[in-house]
Records
---
Amino acid sequence: MSADKRCSAFVERFARRTAAALAAASLLLATALSTARAEVALSGSFTATQTCPAFQSFRKSSNPGDVQVEPNKTYEVIAKNKPDATHYRIIVEGAQPRERWVSSSCGHVGPTDQQSQGAPQSRAATGTRATHVLAMGWEPAFCEQHRDKSECGKLTPSSFASTHLSLHGLWPQPRGRQYCNVAPDVRDVDHNHDWNDLPEPEISPDTHRRLAAVMPGVQSNLQRHEWIVHGTCFGGNADEYFARAAGLAEAVNASEVAKLFTGNVGKSLSAEAIRAAFDDAFGPGAGTRVTVSCHRRGDNRTITELIINLAGDVKGSAGLAALMHAAQPVQPGCPGGLVEPSR
């Protein structure tokens, strides 16, 4: 073979290999871009309801350090794997790497930034970013995941907590505003979920009575945890904090919202219907300040909590309607789910 022919053959083989390499690289890039597009950015919090693995890659089940999320602990959420999420990407402080994936069935997502979810933001002309959120849970759904809790062992279909929404907490915002002036050793006790070993907040007998009625978790000393984490950042003393939280919870339970839940036990309820009930109870537009949280179980969702956004005179005497309308609208969250019956 002549030198020219050998050179021509070499060039041809080189061109074929280069084309194949470029095609393979293009395929890899397309796959990576497809994966990136499938992931949806979020900004909010993920509260674990059970112990679950925190994967570096949930598809490969890789978990360096055997990291797990802990029940009742809140983590920063930064993404979900697709619009109808099966997994959330969260930040687990101390883990290597600290960005981990956790199954959506292991907890629920709290308020998220609307713009980061790819939806256009709708802002009230006079609303401000929430300074506090009122978290109201549906106790039968909570007890499905926490049967070992004292309050869950006593729950019956006729219990107050089976026919009304339960106070989880009144939480100053932004989310990281926690443990104000709390000693490190007390924080450690709380992080270990040793609530019985936390100091009892100083509240009056009347406030304790009201709190115990709307917060079944008092039976597990939830009030100690709530004071240490959130109440210390509220301003004022523990009695003022819990009296205010109880009063706002009482307002929700005296409204059509509680009746809506009671009338749909064992049935599916949409976020749209829940928000409409808030509109009826607290004025048009109030429902747009409510985010619905759900727990996924298989192909089904169960409504677990309502996150009610507040602004304005939260520490004072303003009514719930005024506080809701002072806050900006938020995403509805979960589109709806089952209203779990007591068992």
---
Amino acid sequence: MALGLLAVTSLVAASCGSDEPGGGEASEDGTGRTVRLLTYDAFALPEDAAAAFEEATGAAVEVVPAGDTGAMLAGALLGAGSPEADVIFGIDNTIATEAASAPLLEEYLPEAAGALPEGLSAPGEVAGRLTPVDTSEVCVNVDREWFAQQGLDPPATFDDLAAPAFSGLLSVQSPVNSSPGLAFLLGTVETYGEDGFEEYWRRLRANDVRVSPSWDDAYYNDYTVNGGGRPLVVSYASSPPAEVVFSEGARRQPASTVMAGTCVTQVEYAGVLAGAKSPGLARELVDFMLDERWQSELPLTNFVYPVTDVELPEEFRRWAPRPEDPILVDAAAVGEARDQWIEQWRNVME
């Protein structure tokens, strides 16, 4: 699916040298311009793509980290209308409806967004304000080497995770403050229904599931691949290639596989913040996030899947093929019931 790279590049270049208020602020030394990108702490700027954007526009991308996804959005809502940045990135489909609770976002979508696959658009009131940039699948990761050493077949389904054979082996994140934790909860709601997911969590609790406060804690402290004591962890379909990439040659293949039946799709969006000091540059940056150069860098910088039809790197093709039938939650329904489902979860687990 070609998204018209030439058209996007021409659009970016056309505004260079603009004197309109959206033309960007001068940098401290007065020699350039900046556009500020509000995002979560774990975001890694695609450096080569950002350099291409700066070459085309004369504007450097300045990343403004703001905690995890929930903290980022909460802070942005508090400052709605007087933002500390120009663009926000990292709102996902599990919390997107919260962005409509204040005048947070400017009405804007790039022309290229019209060519994106169906099902990625933001819900309801924010549909014309949030642009899909990447997707990821939250899935249970399995330390296959641990299971092989134990002579135990790994689990394959949500039901298996609650079976006595896997007692004390699973680490999940709290949906109260963790994005993958919330996605996993939504997967259980989708699988067992609003009337059945609480009973499923009672089964997990009885099976000694560990609830960690964050993805970092669950993945780096609990998971056996990283020296912890639990060989099952809620993470991402793209975590296995990350094991190889970040091993600096120590690993030739990942220790992990994923439980495809537990995969829940997350879509991450970018939007222009209302009241941005550089609205013109903000729109150009959102446009550029759908450019081939930005999209091609996402897999090996942030370990997510691009939303455009760019070739995936070899590491993804070998070790992170897209799950064939992931759970795609109804973002509008989530917006209506998310707080209630989290409270029901808390009643069971806390």
---
Amino acid sequence: MSSTIDLIVFDLDGTLVDSLPDLANAANHALHRLGLPAQPLTAHKKMIGAGEKNYVRRFLGPDFQHLYDQALKLYLEHYSGHLGDQSQVYPGVKETLARLAPMNMAVLSNKREDLSRQVVEVMGLGNFFMMVRGGNSYGALKPSPEGLSALIRELGGTPARTLMVGDKPEDVLSGRGAGTRTAALTNGYGDPEAIAAARPDHLFSDFTQVAGLVAG
């Protein structure tokens, strides 16, 4: 496939970086400050992935939506100051990106762009990517294809020669809607059955397998 792919676009959380501990800590900080009980990592894992606003609404729950504005402020203040405390790059990611380095590569997250950029830099991944874009960059969140399509245009790419890599059905659906190839990882935050049901072109259990599509 190496001759047919010019651009690889990666999701961030759950794909390149295990950021769950810092996301959950920020959420639980907000909950604590608001007098609400903290939630376990297993619960937070199911709630993340649709941008900060949706995450805050989810961890507040239906009975406490009236606290949304306060919760969002508390969450963002804490997360922006602690987004590198416990987050880790997944095993094999740096080595695989280095192997793919001749390729044009970018990040498209549903996380806000400024926070996405900070995570990429703090995790030591900045030199690999031509562009880092977030959920507020184009006015659309994945699974909408609009952000991915706009990013491809910004980089002068073509959808048919682009590979979208992520860990959730939203990444697969975004790629399919934009007309790209898709690869999904089952070791991130998405439910493996739901990911398979989204019918990605390639389904992997390990990030290093991505390199086999375009290198070697």
---
Amino acid sequence: MRRIGFPGFLILLLIVPALGQDLSSFIADTLWIHFPVDSTPSTTLQIKDFRQLPPNILAIKEVKKWKYIPVDQYVALNQPLTGLLQYYLHKDTVRFDGTLIIDHLNYWNDKAPFFAKGEKLNGYSRLLDSSGNVIRAWQWEFRFKPKKKQTPAERYVQMTETWIQAQETALRQNLLPDRLSPYRYRRQLVSWLDYIILPDGYILNAHLILDYPSDQQAAFVRGSPGIYYRKSAIHESIAIGGMDQQWYYRLNDRFVARLNATLRFGLNNFNSGKFDHVDFQNILLINLGFSAALEYRPVYYRGVIFGLGLHQSLNIMPEIVQRYEAGLLFTIGVILP
């Protein structure tokens, strides 16, 4: 091993302290978000922040520094989140005796829905009376598409202002006891299987989503690449992944309507007893799938879900099967909060 000479040792003594001072800026990055708040007024509504983050940190996200090095980015406010919310509630004359608890805020980039990619804000807050009893709880989900030339700081301001305005509206509503979720706010596991009966066979399409609950919404969008298997008398197909998107519309407390659109890429295998020769391009599977179903999916539910609907496929490849295929769809699945 080559020894470090005395001059080299002196250089290390000079470099290491300098690196120590700048190490935090190298490992982490800070994005400052400024709101025009001069002071925090006193109000009868107390606000407490129960998030597992420092009071003035909105989020911690992974970004690329110098385009290649992944680092944590701290999205920081120029004051605590509770002070910011209290200022705007007081400014807009929101008056209520009690305690508002901020349990959860998550700013993230949802890439799963093919037609609805973008930034999302998910959150949960509770309102307590003077005795500490929960009067009402709210679940938030907002989706934002970045505007042209909009900076990251401007996007965070927009998302936070939207959440504050929604909280104001909720506090102004009639404060009667509301239906509350029996589960603490967290991601839920939703898995389901679509079984599609076709004139010459069947399709199995399995999905798995780990996402935030959506029971508070009248309509919501999800994306979930699945495992697709198609069986007929002359061939079978398989595809993993795909650009799969679901639009959900709540009809009542028990049922939702689901619309589904999918673009799939996969492989085909043909029955050698039916074909002497198959062109090479027919090995590829490229198709579009559409379905509409009615699902049993109650609000704040844990357990089995099921549904019934219609399916339509457009087969681009292979060329030697029916171009259009219609079928009857049956859905069975489970929700685990």
